């Protein structure tokens, strides 16, 4: 359609000017071979690429003339071979009728595309032949996860037709239905071993290799692979297979812990995989609390999977945390096995696994796997602690422990963006006579003052309130879901709290105090964080002008209007 419209436009231009400017320009500018034939099908115009083709091989042009002569309507597309210095090339021509009875011919080199199609056809034929003669069975799954192809010999005693359209997970053993399989893999799988159900219901062991398939948009559209039935070999060496299976499960758990960027999420997955690897009914992962009194290791539950466990007393957890080896115990009909986790020879948690009912007792393979998992969970605990320390350092002011400037404003932005947050208040707090403390008593005393103010601001705050330090002696306190009256009460509490810090003042003539600006925020009025902060800051300066040790309330927000400082309500002293 674009080509016809373009041609029509040039033809109209030609008629209006009385010349042949339109078609000639299109022929000359076309990036491939192009020419214009008159009503007698003689060449009226040709670009350089078309002329080179006519010079190297004139045989293709008569074939195009015959094609055009036989066309009663728009001719469409025609592919012809052309001999060139590079060899035989296939050119696809589009013929467009012109108003004067001639034709516009536009060509495109189709050689590479045809070669690719031919190569693809040969590749598919070769793949089909290899699959048909292989003793393994090949398969392919579609976007819905079901089989769309199985080699004609079938698999596991099923004919191929019985597997087409079937979910591969229906072939998995009941205890392995939720485990990852090569049939829905998202990355390459090489020689992985899994157990499936054969047609007669007996377990069958296969070794599978697979590749995921992705569409042009990067979406997963299935998987393709081959499986080899190794059941007889595995049954002959069952003990060896069991040991190898334990090692594979440990490797899977280790990779789970290493590959997950979020350490807390990795622990949750590790609890699940550890229980399955040990054929256990459940697993718990505990972590040592930081700063426990008396050097005692206090354990907190951080991840759990499986059946409900009877109440585990602190005596058992203490025994696990203080034992260097495995600890076994029973709670009724529940068999327990636990081991502490360590990092650099320091206990940092515990791993607890259990089986219920008449389960098999723990064997040496179980104990070996348990110890291996505990070692790596100890590393994961250390990684989690490191992440938490980094997060605290990035979010908190190092001196006061309050939110730093960046984190405070990020969280304030999130808070005021919630339409259902209700009225809230921002308190802008500035220290009075703080410079005198540093000048007379030094920065160590100044740091003590800043720490005390941090404690004052964070005492009594509710979930959702945000105490922060902007820098120097400037602080902020965001009070969520707080109206003007409640904000006043908090400001008065802060001013009264300064009485307990009088001993930190530089001198009686220059007592420590606070100047507080209060700005009440009402959702839905379009006020930005910057505008809210500016209102509270202006109110704070008004409070300071009133003699320090006061608070002042900023006027209500008015969009697109400057609020004169005289509109700020009168500063209020400590009652």
Automatic annotation (TrEMBL):
It holds the Pfam family GGDEF. Coiled coil: none annotated. Residues 422-556 form the GGDEF domain. SUPFAM superfamilies: GAF domain-like, Nucleotide cyclase, PYP-like sensor domain (PAS domain). Transmembrane segments: none annotated. InterPro entries: Biofilm_reg_signaling, GAF-like_dom_sf, GGDEF_dom, Nucleotide_cyclase, PAS, PAS-assoc_C, PAS-like_dom_sf, PAS_4. It comes from the Bacteria. Residues 190-242 form the PAC domain. This is Diguanylate cyclase. It comes from Azospirillum palustre.
């Amino acid at each position: 359609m674009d080509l016809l419209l373009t041609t029509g436009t040039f033809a109209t231009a030609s008629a209006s000017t009385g010349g042949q400017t339109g078609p000639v320009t299109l022929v000359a500018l076309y990036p491939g071979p192009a020419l214009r034939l008159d009503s007698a099908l003689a060449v009226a115009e040709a670009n350089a690429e078309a002329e080179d083709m006519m010079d190297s091989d004139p045989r293709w042009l008569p074939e195009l003339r015959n094609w055009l002569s036989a066309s009663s309507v728009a001719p469409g597309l025609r592919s012809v071979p052309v001999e060139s210095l590079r060899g035989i090339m296939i050119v696809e021509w589009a013929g467009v009728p012109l108003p004067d009875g001639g034709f516009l011919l536009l060509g495109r080199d189709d050689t590479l595309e045809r070669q690719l199609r031919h190569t693809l056809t040969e590749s598919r034929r070769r793949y089909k032949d290899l699959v048909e003669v292989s003793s393994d069975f090949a398969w392919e799954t579609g976007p819905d996860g079901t089989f769309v192809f199985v080699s004609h010999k079938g698999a596991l005693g099923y004919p191929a037709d019985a597997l087409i359209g079937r979910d591969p997970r229906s072939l998995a053993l009941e205890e392995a239905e939720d485990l990852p399989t090569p049939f829905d893999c998202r990355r390459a799988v090489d020689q992985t071993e899994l157990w499936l159900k054969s047609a007669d219901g007996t377990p069958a062991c296969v070794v599978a290799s697979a590749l995921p398939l992705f569409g042009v948009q990067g979406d997963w559209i299935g998987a393709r692979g081959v499986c080899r039935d190794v059941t007889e070999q595995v049954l002959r060496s069952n003990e060896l297979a069991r040991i190898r299976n334990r090692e594979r499960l440990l490797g899977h758990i280790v990779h789970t812990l290493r590959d997950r960027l979020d350490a807390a999420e990795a622990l949750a997955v590790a609890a699940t995989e550890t229980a399955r690897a040990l054929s256990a009914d459940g697993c718990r992962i505990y972590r040592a609390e930081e700063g426990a009194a008396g050097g005692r290791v206090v354990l907190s539950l951080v991840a759990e999977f499986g059946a409900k466990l009877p109440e585990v007393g602190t005596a058992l957890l203490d025994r696990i945390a203080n034992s260097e080896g495995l600890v076994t115990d029973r709670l009724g009909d529940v068999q327990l096995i636990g081991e502490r986790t360590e990092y650099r020879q320091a206990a940092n948690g515990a791993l607890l696994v259990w089986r219920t009912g008449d389960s098999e007792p723990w064997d040496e393979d179980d104990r070996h796997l348990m110890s291996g998992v505990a070692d790596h969970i100890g590393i994961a605990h250390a990684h989690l602690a490191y992440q938490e320390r980094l997060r605290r350092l990035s979010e908190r002011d190092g001196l006061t422990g309050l939110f730093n400037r960046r984190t405070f404003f990020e969280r304030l932005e999130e808070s005021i963006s919630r339409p259902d947050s209700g009225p809230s208040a921002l308190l802008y707090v500035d220290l009075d006579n703080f410079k005198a403390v540093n000048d007379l008593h030094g920065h160590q005393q100044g740091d003590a003052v800043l720490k005390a103010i941090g404690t004052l601001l964070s005492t009594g705050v509710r979930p959702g309130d945000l105490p922060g330090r902007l820098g120097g002696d400037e602080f902020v306190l965001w009070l969520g879901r707080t109206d003007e009256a409640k904000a006043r009460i908090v400001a008065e509490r802060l001013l009264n709290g300064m009485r307990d810090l009088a001993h930190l003042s530089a001198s009686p003539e220059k007592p420590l105090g606070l100047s507080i600006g209060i700005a009440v925020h009402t959702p839905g009025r379009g006020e930005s964080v910057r505008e809210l902060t500016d209102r509270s800051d202006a109110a704070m300066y008004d409070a300071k002008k009133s003699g320090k040790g006061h608070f002042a309330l900023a006027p209500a927000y008015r969009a697109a209007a400057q609020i004169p400082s005289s509109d700020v309500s009168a500063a209020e002293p400590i009652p």
